[in-house]
Amino acid sequence: EMAKTQAEYIEEQNRAAQAETEKRWKQREEQDAAYIAANNSAVDQSTAAALKPYETRMEQLPEEYRKQYDYNAVEELVRQKQVAETMANLGLTDSGLNRTQQTAIAVSRGNADAAARLSQQEKTQELRDKMDQLKATGEIQKQQTAAEVKANSQAWYNNLQSTAYENAANRGTALYEAEQQRLADAAALQKQLEWQREQLEWQKQQAEKQAAASSGSSQQGGSQKATAEPSGKSASATSTASSAPSGGSKKTAGST
Predict the structure, then answer these.
(1) First to last CA, the chain
(2) How far, CA to CA in Å, does 138 sit from each of 33, 141, 142, 176?
(3) Where does residue 5 fall: left (phi above 0), alpha (psi -120 to 50 degrees), or beta otherwise?
(4) What is the spatial distance between Cα 28 and Cα 13, in angstroms, rounded to a whole number?
(5) Cα Rg of the chain (Å, integer)
(6) pTM value?
(7) Any idea what DSSP says for residue 4?
(8) In the chain, which stretches have pLDDT less than 70?
(9) Helices (H), the chain
């Protein structure tokens, strides 16, 4: 099996780190969602409280203006009656003057009702504008808060990823270097064992050579000793033999 490269160690560590990072990111997203939901609820409650007076005012407007319309109707009737009585007293009930004044009263009533409707519409629109503004402000607050939360979390996530990769690179490099050191130590140990085996083999060979040499020397020494002993006996015999004849010759001469 081939040893892993430094890049492979780092990638292996980074995969594990990124898996943990994604797990923490999911937790962060859940926390953010809960926070944003709680904030939205709080803003909605605050907005609803701010809207309440305007909603109440909106509900009151139709009744207020109904009274105005009723007043305009009564005012028209009173004026019509007054004009009718006046015209009757003057004998002008069927006169053009009477009809002109009655028409003027009706027009005045119409104008009063139109003015009331316009006022009601303007006040209703004003209330709606203020309510819409409050709602828009609430939505802006919710969007801003959500955007800030997400931006902060994204920055946190980016930093988390960067830190995770940096730590993974450090761990991967350390593991790679440790493995390289282990392999180097194993190679050195193997080399040492081989050297020791070679030394033992050499010592064995030397011992065998010395043993063989010692055995050869012993055999040669024994052979030389066996050869020297007969030579010594011959020399002694010769000397004796020589001596003997030399001593006998003197004896003969003396006898004579």
Answers:
(1) 116
(2) 18, 5, 6, 56
(3) beta
(4) 22
(5) 67
(6) 0.61
(7) P
(8) 1, 217-256
(9) 6-89, 96-255
